[in-house]
Amino acid sequence: MSTNNEKEVLLSVRHLEVTFYNNKKRFRAVKNANFDIYKGETFALVGESGSGKTTIGRSIIRLNHTSDGEILYKGKKINGKLSKAEQRDVIRNIQMIFQDPAASLNERATIDYCVSEGLYNFHLYENEEDRERKVDDVLNAVGLLPEHKSRYPHEFSGGQRQRIGIARAMVMEPEFIIADEPISALDVSIRAQVLNLMNKFKKERGLTYMFIAHDLSVVRYFSDRIAVIHKGRIVEIAPTDELFNYPLHPYTLSLLQAVPMPDPQIEKAKELVIYDESKRDLSGEKPILQEIRPGHFVFANDREMAEYREKLKEMIAFKKEHPTND
Amino acid sequence: MSDNRFEFVKMEESASEHLSAPRYSYWASVFRKFFSSKVVITMLVISAVIMLFSFIHPLFSHYDPTSQGNINDKTMSFIKPCLEYPFGTDRTGRNMFDAVWASCGNSLSIALIATGVTTTLGVIVGAFWGFSKKLDKIMIEVYNVVANIPFTLVVMVLVYVMGAGKWQLIFALSCTSWLSTAYFIRVQVMIIRDREYNLASKCLGTKTSTIITRNIMPYLTSIIVTSIARDVPNFISYEVFLSFIGIGLDVTEPSLGRMVSDYVQYMQAPSASYLFWIPVILCAMISVSLYIVGQALADATDPRTHMI
Lengths: 326, 308
Fold this sequence. Notes:
Strand order of the largest sheet of chain A: 6-7-8-3-9-10-12-11
Radius of gyration of chain A: 21 Å
Number of helices of chain A: 11
Largest interface: A-B, 35 and 27 residues
CATH class of chain B: Mainly Alpha
Distance between the termini of chain B: 46 Å
Number of domains of chain B: 1
Structural class of chain A: alpha/beta
Number of strands of chain A: 12
Strand content of chain B: under 5%
CATH topology of chain B: MetI-like fold
Structural class of chain B: mainly alpha
Strand content of chain A: 15-25%
CATH superfamily of chain B: MetI-like
Radius of gyration of chain B: 27 Å
Shape of chain A: globular
Oligomer: heterodimer
Low-confidence stretches of chain A: none
CATH topology of chain A: Rossmann fold
Mean pLDDT of chain B: 87
CATH class of chain A: Alpha Beta
Number of helices of chain B: 10
CATH architecture of chain B: Orthogonal Bundle
CATH superfamily of chain A: P-loop containing nucleotide triphosphate hydrolases
Helix content of chain A: 25-40%
C-alpha cells in the first residue's frame, strides 16, 4: 500500500449528484459521490445492479447530465455546459468500453467502419493509407486479423466482439478508459482473455482505467483500488488488499461473502449475510465518508467510526495471530 | 510406437480467430431472398411490362383525349377488341389501346411522384423528429391536428381550391401524407435511438447527422420500402377515385379514373362492357402487382430473413 498522495490525480469527482426525473418523480441515482482516480491505476467501482455505478461512468463521459457537483479531469471541469472544443477534448481523451458487445456495435456497419468511426470524427489520420494502417495495427493488437475488416459484427463471437469494442476505443489513443462491466456479458472461458488484453494495454500505453463491476471476484485480480457503492452512495473506498483484508462497512462484507469459494466445504459452511439497511442501527448524526486508515475511507458517523476502529483493531490482531498467504 | 514418430505441432493463435462462414453481403442477400419466390418474379414481370407500356407507348401514340377525329365515322365506333385494335374502340372511335396506356402512364407517374415526395420528406423530417425532443413537442401537435382531418377531405378541398391538373393533384396528394410517413419513421427512430451502439457512437464523437445516416437509416431500409409499397397503390387508387368522382384531373389529361367513370355506363352492356372492364382490370393488376413486389422487397431488405 503506497501513499497515494504522491501520485498525480487524473480524475476527481466532487460531491457528484445525478438525478433522474420520471414525470414528477425524482430519483437520486448518485448521492454525493467523492473519489479521486490517480494516473496509471485501475480504479474499480463495485456495487449491485441499480446502485448507480454505470450512471457515474456515464456522467464522466457526458452521457448523463449531472445535477450537482463537479467532475474534474486534470483539474478542468468536464461536466455541465462546455464549449464544443472542450467537449471534443473530453471525448478524445476519455473512452468507454461497453458491457454488452452484442448491443454496442452497429450491426449494419463493417468492422472497418466500427473501428475507424472515432478516427473519422477527429480526423486522426493523414491519409487513407495511414487510417488503414492504424486500423490494422489495432486489430492486430487485440488479436484479430486484418481480413476481418470487411465482416459484419454479427459474424463474430462474443469475445471477439468485445475485442472489437476495445479496439475501437484504443485506436483513439485515449488516456482514460471507463470499462462498464466489460466482461459480465462474456463466457467465463474468455473473460481472462479480455482482462489480460486490457492489462496489456495498460502496461504498454500507461492507461488509467475505471472498472465498473458488480462482483468482487474479478476486481481483486485486476484493480489497484476499489470503491463500493450502494444505492447511489459510496460506502467504502480502499486499496484492493486493504479492502479484502479489512472490510469494514457491512455492505462490503456481504458483497465479499457473495463471492463463491471454489472449495465446497468452505462454501457449504459459509453463512451468507444479506445486507439489510433497515435492520441497522442508524442512530446518531448523518454519516459521511471518513478516512479510517491512510487511503481507506468508510461511510460512517462518529459512533459508527468508533465501532469500525474497534473492529479494525481486532482484525489486525487476528491477522497477526493467523498469518495467511493472501 | 516410439516417441520419435511424433513431432510437435506449433499452436497458431490466429487460427482460432479465423471466420469460416461465407462472406456476408447485405445487398446480395436482399437479391437472393427477393428472387427466391416465383409469385414475386411473376408479379415483377407483370408490373414491369405494364410500366414499360405505360411510359413508352404514349411516346409513339401521342394520344390526346380531346381529339375525336373519328366521331363521324360510324364504322369506327364500338369495334370489339381485335388484332388491329387490341382493346377495341369507343363510341367516338378512339383507339382504346392508346387511351389505356396513356391513362396508365399518367396515373402511374402521379402515384410515383407523390410517393417520392412523401417518402423523401417523411423520412428526412421523421429522422430528425425522432431525435429531437424539442421538435417532437411541436411536431406531435401538428400531427395530431392534421391526422384528425380526413385525408380525402384535405385532397378534395385542395384540388377544388387549386383547380384540376396533374401537378395540383400531386401537390394535394403529398401535401399532408408525408406527415404520416414522418410519424411512422419517428416511432421507429425512437425505438432505435437509445440503443447502446448509438451511445457508443456518441462516445466516439459522432455527430447526430452521421448517427442518423450511418446508424439509424440502414436499420430502416425495410420499413421505408414497406411504406413505399403501401403508398404507390394507395395513391393510384386515390387518383382513380378522385377522377372517378370528377375532381381529379383535367379533361385534357388521360387518366384511368376518368376512363372508368366515362365507361361505367357500359358495364352491363354485353357488346361494349370491355370498355369498362379493361381499365378496371389494369388498375387492379397495377395495384396488386406493385403491392406484392413492394412487400417482397420489404421482406427481403429485412436482414432477419437472410438466415440460411
